[in-house]
């Protein structure tokens, strides 16, 4: 079977590209490994920035739908010391450019905006092969194949499309997150709820931190960050939630109880999220008929930009293809020439942010950066 534009991956990057192409009347097919839109929980909230994610949603014609998803007040942010002292506190005055939405709801408005059948669920790509003259063959896990004249890898960190362009593979960044959730916190965990406040909380120290967010209602979603090697995490039995929780909490001995409650009182088993990244500045020579968007192109340790950049990449590639309907290579060149420096800059800033958050002078290094930034405005 031959399809015109083929996207692998129905994450935010691939779906934004599909939607922008659809807005411009360009047919597209998205192949997604997961069996259905609801097969996997889509995780927590994302702040969608006015300088990238929101521009992508404008290009997708979905700003009204997006505004309907925004959780008011969630842009408040505070930084605490390990003893619970509030060192920095910024209220949400409604003027911030980073409103928060649920990732799953954002993905759903993109899915709803595409013609039925655009996304082919349950299609896990096992390999890709160049056939020459810009044509690519995609093989799925069930043995079926498609041949396409434009293949876009929007298939995330472990992309099966990326090998057509680059030998790079993600590497462990030296830090991981352990994810916990507390539900109905205002009644069941009032001290933790009060510490987190209306938006997000960062409690930081060199090499470790507790990052929590108030989601809908009283749900508190926490990423416990630890700068430890992979072996250290491998020695923890995450199939034994109580033991794993105790081992992680031990790293925060002596911290204020309203902070450690975010670990010890989790209503869900702790989930380990090993953090990987591609090399900063990852790029490749142009190969006819293949492109990458989002994490497939520039996976970074989470710094609040990844989903925004994936959507922005998708929108920019969609617009470039619409502007060059008879010249795919011109569109891909234009897209990549802007995407490479954009993602390099974001990854560099993200690495600097991690240094401020988890380096030897945390949390004061981060606060100095925040207050310096505010004074400059
Ligand atoms: C713990 C954590 C917290 C984060 N927090 C934030 C945040 O607050 N803000 C932010 O902007 N970013 C955040 N990020 C980063 C963000 O999640 C990613 O950058 C973003 O999801 C990338 O989007 P994508 O569309 O490129 O890839 P993905 O979201 O990974 O989507 C890829 C899709 O491709 C599918 N797929 C994968 N392999 C195949 C295959 N072989 N065949 C077919 N389909 C396949 C997957 O099932 C998936 O649906 C966070 C990341 C992590 C790990």
TrEMBL record:
Protein name: Flavin-dependent monooxygenase
Domain FAD-binding residue range list: 3-337
Subcellular location: Cytoplasm
Cofactor: FAD
Protein source organism: Streptomyces albospinus
Free-text note regarding domains: Consists of an N-terminal FAD-binding domain with a Rossman fold and a C-terminal substrate-binding domain.
Biological function: An FAD-requiring monooxygenase active on some tetracycline antibiotic derivatives, which leads to their inactivation. Hydroxylates carbon 11a of tetracycline and some analogs.
E.C. designation(s): 1.14.13.-
Family to which the UniProt record says this protein belongs: Belongs to the aromatic-ring hydroxylase family. TetX subfamily.
Primary localization class, coarse: cytoplasm
Subunit structure: Monomer.
Membrane-spanning intervals of the chain: none
Residues binding FAD: 47, 103, 295
Record flagged with keyword Cytoplasm: yes
Pfam families: FAD_binding_3 (PF01494)
Reaction catalysis annotation: a tetracycline + NADPH + O2 + H(+) = an 11a-hydroxytetracycline + NADP(+) + H2O
Keywords: Cytoplasm, FAD, Flavoprotein, Monooxygenase, NADP, Nucleotide-binding, Oxidoreductase
Keyword Lipid biosynthesis applies: no
Positions annotated to bind NADPH: 40
Source organism, top-level taxon: Bacteria
